[in-house]
Design brief:
The chain has 223 residues and is of the alpha+beta class. It folds into two domains: 109 residues, no CATH class; 92 residues, no CATH class. The chain is built from eight helices and five strands, in the order ββααααααβββαα. A hairpin with a 5-residue loop joins strand 1 and strand 2.
Length: 223
């Protein structure tokens, strides 16, 4: 299962023109332009939108926000008002309210595995990335609350030093250049040593490569 576009060495929106002739150098020097790797187009093709702003445009806006200045959904509109993105992307701040953003994410979620695979493969081709070396590791995200009915939010080894809270685990494979190749969301109770073989299968489903150098904390602990 697959998700992020951060890749060191690429510049996103080096200069964004804003009304009145001003220019905003709200640069992102460590990520590719989501449009160049097809982030918006890949989301628009299978997902017709009823919004004034298309799902593809909304996803591009969220990608810029996550890579430049992450905000919760209800604060994205406020953040956008201080940028030149209304001109650059053609989305007005009033179109970026949290309900619209959430509905676009819900629409994309149904197709996210195919979308992610397509975007990653396009980024690999465009930036000529190699797979001779991958790093694999796990991290965890903790939650406040009981979550008694969740299959994913469970108690387990806490990397956040919050043993009192439930969590999910996130397993991720990253290329030498820093591109997240693939990820899996795992139950918070999942033991590290049980995941490397599962991750290898995910890699095989994403690329045609069969041999990797794979440094990994989880791998070292695997039987």
């Amino acid at each position: 299962m697959y998700h992020d576009l951060s890749y060191a060495g690429r510049t996103l929106c080096p200069v964004i023109s804003v009304p009145g002739g001003a220019q905003s150098r709200r640069c992102l020097s460590h990520a590719p332009d989501p449009a160049r790797v097809g982030a918006g187009r890949r989301r628009e093709r299978p997902l017709p939108s009823d919004h004034v702003a298309s799902h593809g445009k909304i996803v591009q806006l969220l990608a810029v926000n996550r890579l430049q200045a992450p905000r919760p959904l209800y604060k994205v509109q406020e953040w956008q008002e201080a940028t030149g993105l209304a001109t650059a992307l053609g989305i007005q701040p009033e179109q970026a309210h949290d309900t619209c953003l959430g509905e676009s994410l819900d629409a994309c979620y149904v197709h996210y595995e195919d979308i992610w695979k397509s975007v990653v493969q396009r980024a690999i081709t465009r930036y000529q990335l190699s797979f001779d070396w991958l790093h694999y590791d796990l991290t965890s995200v903790y939650f406040e609350g009981l979550y008694t009915e969740s299959e994913l939010v469970q108690s387990g080894y806490s990397r956040n030093h919050r043993p009192d809270s439930k969590q999910i685990n996130l397993a991720q494979n990253v290329t030498r250049e820093g591109l997240p190749l693939a990820f899996r969301v795992l139950a918070g109770s999942t033991a590290d040593s049980t995941t490397p073989r599962m991750s290898a299968s995910t890699n095989a489903a994403t690329t045609t490569w069969s041999r990797f150098t794979w440094p990994s904390e989880a791998m070292r602990r695997a039987p």
